[in-house]
Amino acid sequence: MRQHNSNHYRLLAEIKSRIGRDFTWFPFVGLLAFGLLLVLTGHLLPKLNVRWGSPATLIELAGPPSPEGAIWFSLSVRDEFVIATTEDRTVLHWHVDAQTTEALGELRNYLKERQKSIFLATALAKRVSVSEPLVIISADSSLKYKHVRPVIYLLAQLGFSHYAFETKQPLS
Amino acid sequence: MAQTDLHAFVKILQNGRPISSITMPLRRKKIYVSSSIKKELSIPFYGFPKKNILLLKTKKKEPAELVLSLPFEGLVVTDGETTQISPTAPLGTSFPMKNGDYAALHHKDLVFLVKIASFVKELEPPLNPYYAPKLWSFLLHDKNEAISLTVGLCGSLFLFVCICLGFLLRPFDAPRRLEQLDQEYILPFIEKDTFSTSPEALKFNLDRLNYIPPIVKYYRNYTHLMVGFPLENHELVYPSSISLAYKKNEEMKGKIASKENIQRDLDSATASSKDKGTLSIPASYEGSFQNKLLEIIEKFTQIQSGFKKSLASRRFVTQEYLEDAEYDWGNYFQEKTVLKKKKQMEAISKISVFGQLTNEEWMYDVGEKLGKKAEILRRHYDMLRDKNTWLSRDSIVNVYLPSSLTQASFLNNPNFDLLDRKIYLITATRVSNKK
């Protein structure tokens, strides 16, 4: 009969004990993956498509694809504020009960800066694409007319005569 | 081995094989043997006289009670005394069960084993730390390593802080504006005439070493002047152009203000009337964004055409220009005092041994070459991008509203609360049957 205190039995018991324990370092591998995911979702993916991470939930409605080069921003409502998220992830906000377009000063400045760059590009190239003076509003489906109205009036003040609302192409 | 509180152990065997068991700490509870599967000790579909047979009553701090609810045969050991149980024993007889007491009872083919004892939990033997070291032990094995690591960490931290500070304090040289980009990135987006006419446009501000940035600045400032944005570099724009543009803007502002006043009066008159209402139309006062873009294109086409004609006139028509000193590096016009001193040098400088260009010729030649390069790149870029239609007068339609319009309001900064009042009134008339 094999002695229980033999080396073979001791090693076997130790290995059994070792592999029977939980491996406590695995969360670090998970954390590494989580970190990479954060970097990807936070920096890389929004650069590929501005619609990534947009807070607006769009209505599903078939329509032509958005033209390239248009000014894009999303509109959504949160905590009594209308939130506008621009292509470069600038978050602008104003109160939902804004009674004049004066409350939309941040959006006005942003659009003016965009206009400046389009004016300059047009002056240098002596041509401009039809889509560049277009504004595409990616409006959340929960928005009401009173939320969008100040934006429309502001666009008119700044001379934007062409604007469109973005929809999501339904899956067929 | 670690002992815990007293527990009741009950196990039922059928023909020697365990079929049901329960282990529970002593608390106020009754343990039944049942033919239903819902009870803890269940023998499904077994033919008991009753559905639930009471076997054991347990209490928290008192002895448990074994109840003979079936005609059992066997033995009960309590306080070291053995009691033989025969099937003729009266039903409902009970026995107190303390720590260490047990019973073995037969009923037909079933054996009931009952014991009151402490629950013994087997402790896991300690693991050899060689196989499962502590979390950070792979970094630090002994004291010497800890010292080395600490020193290394301090050194690394110092270097890291220095590098971070270096990054923070370094001058920000990333391009922020269009003119700060390298030439290859801007060229496809500039029209060739913009380059060829740049000496005429920039004059003193022409910089042959850094050709493109002054051009971009010039067009930016002139564009700002046209659309009413503040100027960034006044020296690039003619003072006469500034004063003309300001005068035009002021006139336009005055006209808009007077028309706005008329519209406001009409709106207030409509607001005070109960029977009337107006539609509010978001409108642009000084033309749309698209109109302004087209105006810019047309204006710069005219300006550049003027530059070309001016140059042609200067070269071939006006004799005085030919007698002038030629353009020198960095100077479009030269001062008269300097001219005399330089005349002799210029005569020598015009001798071209290898047919090289003069400074003035170079000035235009650089513009022409950059223009041609830009045109090639632009064509290549146009081939790569999607087919896109360019904005033209045909692609837009302007709708003009008269200032005395009473049916609609063109104020583009109205008070939304005032606009909604009429809508509330309309809702009220629809709700009320009397009105």
Write structural notes for this entry.
The complex is a heterodimer of chains A (172) and B (435). By secondary structure, chain A is α/β, with parallel strands linked by helices. In chain A, 41% of the residues lie in helices and 16% in strands. Chain A has 2 domains: 7-48; 71-165. Chain A has 4 helices and 5 strands. In chain A, 25% of the residues are buried. The mean pLDDT of chain B is 83. The longest helix of chain B has 34 residues, at 239-272. Chain B has a 6-stranded antiparallel sheet, with no helix packed on it. Among the domains of chain B are: 2-121, Sandwich (Tumour Suppressor Smad4); 180-244 and 283-396, no CATH class. Chain B is α+β, with helices and mostly antiparallel strands and 435 residues long. Chain B contains 11 helices and 13 strands. Chain B is 41% helix and 18% strand. The chains are: A alpha/beta (172), B alpha+beta (435).
